[in-house]
Fold this sequence. Notes:
By secondary structure, the chain is α/β, with parallel strands linked by helices.
Amino acid sequence: MTQFFTEEHSAETVNARMGDNVNPRLKQVMASLVRHVHAFIKDVHLTQDEWDLAIDFFTRTGQICSEERQEYILLSDVLGISMLVDAINNRRPVGATENTVFGPFHVAGAPIRQMGENICLDGKGEACLFEGRVIDLHGNPIEGAHVDVWSDNADGFYDVQQPGIQPKWNNRGIFVTGKDGKYCFVGIKPVSYPIPDDGPVGKMLGHLGRHPYRPAHMHFLVTAPGFQKLVTHTFVGDDHYVTSDAVFGVKRTLVAPFEKIEGGETDWHSPFDFVLTPIADVLRMLTPSGQTELKEKKTQCRC
Ligand code: BEZ
Ligand code: FE
């Protein structure tokens, strides 16, 4: 039945060609991929012209990729794949801060700044005081947490998108919590911006009647020994795009207060606590045999 290719048994024929010594996980993933792709092609009755167009799209997507640009990640983002993979791999107990997309604009090695320091180096935008605590699920402060933050500037660009125009490390910094678990810094009230839309993915969004905008957000990467890494943003709730994020990154719990301050040192105040999940709890949620794996992984920290 599976020796020769037929429309009816196409997926089974392809999968039957796999060797005997294939990595079991690779076998599971590839067999499922082939089954689903074949079922999709049959479902929509894909035409030759459509398949040629798809090949051309993937070719152009690859051709525009460079050290600075990753169009495939963008494709994964706008199709909700990044968020789905993130959601499946970051299931957390109730009360823990939720993850969201990392995005392409994080730069490792940002300067460690003093608590309260201003990360906005270009003097543009409305100043906003971001503050809160890094705590565990019981509300205990976490000391030594690294709160790595980054945002666009008031013109809607990250510093790495405008080298030579924006100062290096503009709107970026790392803050290390003390015994009280508190963090605070001054940044700008972020503004919404379009994801890079001058390539094949942007064109695809256009054909689908979709805009390329992300609602205003501040990025946070929070790490602490013994706790699961938290990759998240806080969002400005009254942003025009908050319910139509081009990459589906908004979660209800991540919409933060942005309070207007009259006559203060900053124009805005955004309080937000980050609740981290102990690594032990993460492993328990991942597998029924989490307990066994836990013993092996107990020594890990900042993972
Ligand atoms: C960002 O928020 O920086 C981002 C996320 C996904 C795609 C493009 C940008
Ligand atoms: Fe962003």
